Amino acid sequence: MSAVRSLAGLLEHTAREFPEKIAVTVPGGRSVTYSQLSALSDRVRDRLVHMGVRRGDRVGLRLHKSIEAVATIFGALKAGAAYVPVDAESPAARAAYILNDCNVKVVVTERDLESELVDALGSLAASPTRLVLDVGATQPMEELLETLQRSEPAASVASVETGADDIAYILYTSGSTGKPKGVVLSHGNALSFIDWCSETFAPRADDRFSSHAPFHFDLSILDIYVSLKHGATLVLIGEELGKEPIKLAAAIAAERISVWYSTPSILSLLANYGKLAKHDFGSLRMVFFAGEVFPIPQYRALQAMWTQPQYFNLYGPTETNVCTWYEVPPDARLEQMSTFPIGRICPPNRGKVVDDRGDCVAAGESGELLVSGPNVMRGYWNLPDHNERAFLVDETGERWYRTGDIVCEEPEVGYRYVGRRDRMVKRRGYRVELGEIEAALLRNPDVREAAVIALPDPESGVRILAFVACQEERTLTRIALKAYSAQALPPYMIPDIFSVVPALPRTSTDKIDYQRLRTVA
Ligand code: AMP
Fold it and tell me: How far is the CA of 290 from the centre of ligand 1 (A)?
């Protein structure tokens, strides 16, 4: 298995070993075996190559979570391309920006999502070729490809051999300068992480992995590839089901999920509203959580219901995938803990804690966590200035990614997360740059000034407040601002509260006085 050096190779390997095992299933819906998934992704590969996709190209995906989406991911990888998943739930304009930014050759989308995307791409004068799948229609993907084959035959081609340095996928995250930025990850980056998961968690072929996170979120990398590498079954949890705690809890039990991975927000939702006592969760072996701090009281509520699994706190920005981990000991003295540690660095990666000058801090002091090693991204797509700032190259030439997270190291447990050094916040586990919200508000021609702050919230973790001053002789209501934001931003970035003010408070140096805004909020 160690010879497999590409993500598509993982699927091919398992398809030979376990051809008849179920690879992917949808609760209450269809399933595909490994050999079927392999064959389906071959056909997508052939179609993409027929449409002009070559090694090193990008293939965009704007699809709801589905077997078709998984087959498309592998089809793109087999064609030697990098896949770029964009959120089907976010405004088409944002998707179009991303697809245009990394210049995708082909975009694969669904009939229902097609026209808004075409309009949005048209307004950018971007024109990737489209492959439109009728996901959710009665016609399975095989038949759709068959119909296409009859009208425009695509020759069967060999999968393209990709190496560790080829780009496997680009995940766009919120960008502080107002536009999403593309985190470029190679096959080598992904495989380093996947191999670490294999060694650390010893997944089994009889496991059933959840796929709760959307495919544009990096939690999906563990879900898809660790599951498929080991011949386990991936249980796809769609966007709707994923948000409804009662139905979600029932699905976890009915699907006998054994490895669960999600943000703490979802686990809290399950613990508080999922009526967990109604079901038998005896299959659950491991619960991974990542993306944000898991408040201990919420964890305790969950652990009181799910007593048997092992729990792991996984930490890492998209730029490194998971790079530190901590297993919550079964006998943890939770009442004495304020937060969970994020733990130790995942080997063979290395970490260090530095001060503002980049020098290592004294043991136990807090500073910024820097990470180097095979998990660390190649860089941001087409953003040389960001790349310059994102890395510290030390005197030996080693390249360290600056996480922007403040941590301190404790001898017993490893790193403990303290907070951020910039204006990035996590909301329901999603990364939100307050600057991106401000930039979106400022694109509204009626807005003169905008400032966005985040305040802690006991219920939801964080509350986002927007202060807006209008252009002269213009008025904007809160409702209008909310409606505008829904068109311009993904749902998790829409501010909770809008305040329309005559002017934003300024400091003596004429900068926006964020401190004052916090006090008036
Ligand atoms: P993302 O790129 O969406 O994965 O977000 C990465 C950021 O989320 C990190 O830089 C941290 O600020 C935060 N984060 C990720 N995992 C954890 C965790 N286990 N505990 C606390 N914060 C986390």
Answer: 7
